[in-house]
Amino acid sequence: MTSTFTPKQAIAFDGALLKELQGDVSDKIALSLLKEEVGLSRMPPSSVIHDNGCGYGAVTMAVMAADPPAGVRIHATDVNDMYLAELQATLARHPAWPVEVETMDACALAFPDRSFDLSVATFVFLGLRDPVAAAAQVRRTLKPGGTGVVAVWKDMPWHQALENAHVRIRGGADEPMAPFLAAPRYQKDELARDAAAAGWSPDELRFVEKAEWLNLGADLKRWVTIAWSFLAAPAGGWKQRDEDRWDEAVDSVVEELAQGPWHKVEDGVHKIRMVSDVAIMKKQG
């Protein structure tokens, strides 16, 4: 039996490291959206909120930090058990939070029609098998007058740095890109198209732009090592050359990130500026 090769420098995948990789940029964008675009504190008492594709619970945590209305209830759903375990650990530290967690596909929600006053999906649509179905599910499960919020990335500087390192160490541009890095971008134009196909009218949809800083930690090389381990595995699996040239790849990403105009160091923490486009969907009927 042959074993799958893994470079000795690669970090084993787990939910806590995935959260470290993502940092708190989703949390900050979610909090800004809830306060500024949604007006969470002005929502009616006993509002019901869907944290759709909740991941580790960035939206749920932002709701609880944003002066929610009295009697608010949150339903947090995702299909990734590793993410849900992270959220459950958070909820164990906050047993009074009014949150129910369920495993559920955003493309096939089990909730009844008109369940929610607010549905928020931050950076979820990129990985969905059927984003048109997901946009339709958001509309179906919102109450009339309810608001859907769907955020997608506009600028991800770290992504390009990983692509450049892939090309540099793996034989040039003709080498198949690592599957995660090769995945089609899902951005504002795709979201607007899919929302229209799902039945959202132009009058129900507007976009806003949100920019926040992704905290990469005090050790930039550690963050890049996590990113390279999780995101840069080549098509067909790791090879010996990946172990042999691991430091070269990681160092090149560190250098590119540190020299970019979207990078800063603040209080000893490396940060990358990331920009999102956010659809604000107001259900009219």
Number of helical elements: 11
Shape: globular
Please report the distance between the alpha carbons of the first and last residues. 59 Å
Number of strands: 8
- Helix-strand makeup class: alpha/beta
What's the CATH class label?
A: Alpha Beta
Query: By CATH's scheme, which homologous superfamily applies?
Result: Vaccinia Virus protein VP39
Radius of gyration: 20 Å
Question: Could you tell me the strand content as a percent range?
Answer: 15-25%
Q: Give the count of structural domains.
A: 1
The largest β sheet comes out as: 8 strands, mixed
Order of helices and strands: HHEHEHEEHEHHHEHHHEE
What's the architecture in CATH terms? 3-Layer(aba) Sandwich
CATH topology: Rossmann fold
* Low-confidence residue ranges: none
Mean pLDDT: 93
Helical content class:
25-40%
Protein name: Methyltransferase domain-containing protein
Domain Methyltransferase: 50-146
InterPro entries: Methyltransf_25, SAM-dependent_MTases_sf
Pfam family, one: Methyltransf_25
